[in-house]
Design brief:
mainly alpha, membrane, TatB, protein transport
Length: 147
């Protein structure tokens, strides 16, 4: 529960608790907080058990952690029945991204992957200090009646 709290932070919290509540009331506050946490956990567990009972026997192995999208996807990727491992292993993201980059820059993907020519001086970056090129008269004529 407190995996992200370091020792210095824990000491700071304790010192603040002593300053806010005082050394006389601090043990009672800690007991009240622990009692509240215990009741919340009991309520949560009873709600989970009620839901499992209402779902019926076909959902007896249902885990609420499966509702987390990351957990669900991780379990589905590890599932051998769907064949997703072969799809994931057959997909080369670096190659796909290189092809997309080459297509955007107007280069031939086979020529750029086989040749060992150095990259352009700009590194494929757009120079923002230059003014954009004038498109010339390539624009279609403006029709006032059409708008």
């Amino acid at each position: 529960m407190f995996n992200d709290i370091g020792p210095l932070e824990l000491v700071t919290i304790i010192v603040l608790a002593v300053l806010v509540f005082g050394p006389d009331k601090l043990p009672k506050v800690i007991q009240d907080v622990m009692r509240t946490i215990r009741k919340i956990r009991e309520f949560s567990e009873s709600a989970k058990q009620d839901i499992r009972n209402e779902l019926g026997p076909e959902f007896k192995d249902f885990e609420f952690e499966d509702l987390n999208p990351k957990t669900f996807i991780r379990k589905q990727l590890d599932n051998e029945d769907l064949g997703l491992k072969e799809i994931r292993n057959g997909f080369d993201l670096k190659k796909e991204m290189a092809e997309v980059t080459d297509a955007v820059h107007g280069r031939d993907s086979e020529a750029s992957s086989s040749s060992s020519s150095p990259p352009p001086a700009s590194g494929g970056r757009v120079d923002m200090t230059k003014k954009p090129e004038d498109p010339g008269d390539d624009r279609p004529p403006f029709d006032m009646d059409a708008t």
